[in-house]
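Weekly sync notes, structure subgroup
Attendees: PM, AL, DS (notes)

Item 1: joint prediction request from the bench team. They want all two components modeled as one assembly rather than separately. Inputs as received:
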Amino acid sequence: MKQISAIVLILFFIPVAAAQYDIYPLSKTKQIQFQNLLKELRCLVCQNQDLADSNADLAKDLKREVYKQVEQGKSNQQIIEYLTSRYGDFILFKPPLQSNTLVLWLGPFAFLLVGLFVFGAFIYSKRASNHD
Amino acid sequence: MIHRYFPLILFFLICGFLLIGLKLDPQKLPSNLKNKEAPRFSLPDLMNKDVPFSNSDLKGQLSLVNVWATWCLACREDHLFLMKLAKQGVPIYGLDYKDSPHAARRWLDDYGNPYIKVGSDIKGMTAINWGVYGTPETFLLDKRGVIRLKHVGPLTQRAWNEDFMPLIKALRDKS
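Output from the run, pasted for the record:
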């Protein structure tokens, strides 16, 4: 019984997953480009969702815009340039490496260094006190 | 000695960051089109379909472009303030975002029309071109049609006094 209901459940979800990309017919390479782009782009209304997952109205419109441009054969860079010039870098989940994001990119490494330094100092002082 | 106070210092440092974090509004995104020419558009005017509303309407004077919709609750509040501004003679243009022209016309009949012209952006593509992500949004354009400021959310007297007025004065003085 359990197995049957599990199968029925799975069947429920398959058409949904398939249907999502049926609205946007593309050649295989463009389909991959399109789907990758949608995962990199943030929905601006529901900010922690990507465009691929979001069903917000604006996200659907942005999806259509991205689709149009992918279909026209534009490169990822051109499309991202189009969107960031309007919505800012915030639309990208992965911020570009530039002067105002330097802290964001290098911060973790700085913290790692500080951590290593503290760790080293701790070990060193332990050793020094053990030798006494 | 400093070892002892280290946790305390860390505590206050974290408090400081959290305090700043409390005041940030992640829903408010700055416009990336600031100081750039308003993106090209041409839309049917809500009131007169035969005459399009386009960039050329926005040149020659300072103007506001307000993005709104009848389905947007906050736009009602926004509209009250726009009516006040229109009475003071501020030129306001509208962009009716993803809306039925019929409903929009009825709204303007019922509540009053603060707009000189209203573009009917049924598919919302002009709004995307303008970097709109939520209604209401209000742009301030200088007389060359360059975007100088964007306000997200309903306009308030405070935002008007603090953000818009100083800029409007500066732009007027310059010309």
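Discussion: Residues 41 and 92 of chain A are 5 Å apart (CA to CA).
Action: AL to compare against the crosslinking data before next sync.
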